[in-house]
């Protein structure tokens, strides 16, 4: 039985390129493509693919938040990040969101196909260039998460912070999340209190550093 795959990347050339590379693989079938985070979530819920290959930097909902939603709402689907970002924070946050694999966009075809097969089988996978110290750091930080070394923000607070850092007003965020503006302001106060950061510039820098958002897609 073929591994059913959805590819989520804003760049059409990258999507088509990955599909072309995977087409000759007898045990793989690309069944859908998405160019935004919302589209990737919609396709995951509609098609229930075995694997979603997703970029971290996606419009409207980044890959980290989309991964968290997929893992929660479509538990049979495995997620593998395919990204140009190799910072420890980006990798850590993707795995904390529930991703099963993480490879770089300049990886080899062999690593791409090995990664897909590994996560489809329920295993974890990292490409060679980001193993070793990254795995050690991930395990260390996870083991100390109770002491607050990992982001103290809740899932909703991370979502609000992402939208704030992308220039959305409290009113627009409230409309997108279908909650009141007053609730958004409450989340904003909690975010600044937890992080000890005041001002949108500081919050944006934090969001980029922690992989919550990426302004350079």
Question: How does this structure look, described?
Answer:
By secondary structure, this protein is α/β, with parallel strands linked by helices. It folds into two domains: 3-143, Rossmann fold (3-Layer(aba) Sandwich); 155-209, Arc Repressor Mutant, subunit A (Orthogonal Bundle), CATH 1.10.10.10. Helix content is 51%, strand content 13%. The protein contains ten helices and six strands; from the N terminus they run βαβαβαβαβαβααααα. It is globular.
Instruction: List the domain count as a whole number.
Output: 2
Structural class category: alpha/beta
CATH architecture of the largest domain: 3-Layer(aba) Sandwich
Biggest sheet descriptor: 6 strands, parallel
CATH topology of the largest domain: Rossmann fold
Q: What sequence of helices (H) and strands (E) makes up the elements?
A: EHEHEHEHEHEHHHHH
CATH class placement of the largest domain: Alpha Beta
| Terminus-to-terminus distance | 35 Å
Care to give the gist of this entry?
The protein is of the alpha/beta class. 51% of the residues lie in helices and 13% in strands.
Output the keywords.
217 residues, alpha/beta, Rossmann fold, Arc Repressor Mutant, subunit A, 2 domains, six-stranded parallel β-sheet, 10 helices, 6 strands, 51% helix, globular
Explain the layout of strands and helices.
Layout lengths: L2 E6 L3 H11 L5 E7 L2 H11 L3 E4 L8 H11 L4 E6 L4 H10 L3 E4 L4 H12 L4 E2 L6 H11 L11 H11 L4 H8 L3 H15 L4 H10 L8
Parallel strand pairs: 1-2, 1-3, 3-4, 4-5, 5-6
Helix pairs in contact: 2-3, 3-4, 7-9, 7-10, 8-9
